[in-house]
Amino acid sequence: MTVEQEIGDGASSRSHKRRWYEMRLLSFTLSMGLVLLCPCVTLANDLANCEQSADNVLRIEACSVLIQRNPGNADAYVRRGNASGILGAHDKAILDYGVALKLDPNNLTIYMNRADSYLGLGEFDLALVDIQFFLKTADVNNKAILAIAYSTRGRAFGNNGDLKSALLDFDKAIELEPQLPASYVNRGFFLSVSGEQDRAIADYDRALSLEPRNAITWLNRALAHRRKKDNARAVADLTEAIKYAPTMADAFLTRGNAYLDLGKSDNAISDYTKTIELSPDDARAYNARGFAYAGKNDRARAIADYRKALAINPKYERASGNLRALGVAP
Length: 330
Prior knowledge:
Layout: H1 3-6, H2 11-31, H3 39-52, H4 56-69, H5 74-86, H6 90-103, H7 109-120, H8 124-137, H9 143-159, H10 163-176, H11 181-193, H12 197-210, H13 215-227, H14 231-244, H15 249-261, H16 265-278, H17 283-295, H18 299-312, H19 317-325
């Protein structure tokens, strides 16, 4: 082949010119510090982020891109639903699980996931329907998955007031998979609210031995200590919870309450103020801080906090009662 033929007027000429242009473009791009990504790279990134990103907002964005590209991708709906559920957007999670079930009705674990989101919304009867269907229909040999299912059903039973059935399910979950911390936490929670603090604390101890950085477990054990009037231990546990979850407003609020019961008003006020910083619409924090101010005879600040609590929640009877105790009309 001659040089004239290679750069002539035919298709080979256009191909050569296109290659020359692409090389020039690549050279310019590299010199400017830019990177050209082919669609296959971005697709791989979206797939990886949808499947395993620790950033749930990023997971939702990546899964949404996959769904736009392929609306029949049931797995992307499930993963986006899981991420939404972790972020507390249970209504969105339930919508995604519903679509996923239409696309992949044989994926029965979706029922278990949707049950968990129904629990998050307080729809305990619907949660029971889904988890009962999973347990009756799914042919599962994986003990860990079965343990999660029984623990989920236990939460549904417990929140529906059936403590006996709840505890039986938690016992079954622990029998199936003794290394699953959530089963101990769930059983401990319902034991605690039913008044069995020592048994609850023992379950939280076991859960923390398996998962020592779980702030929710530290918070729950602190609440059990509070119910035993052991506020010193409660403060210690809540400090651990805050160490692992420094933006958990409930941990600061609960520690403030424990400090107040220990007579440490200044510590309590500091924690209530931090709670308000993290959760500005929490009427409980304003009411509690108002009560602490009242205990220090700081009437003006107490009244201001009670009124702020009522501005957030006009039906908040505790704040109204605290104002009346100061001789002020709500």
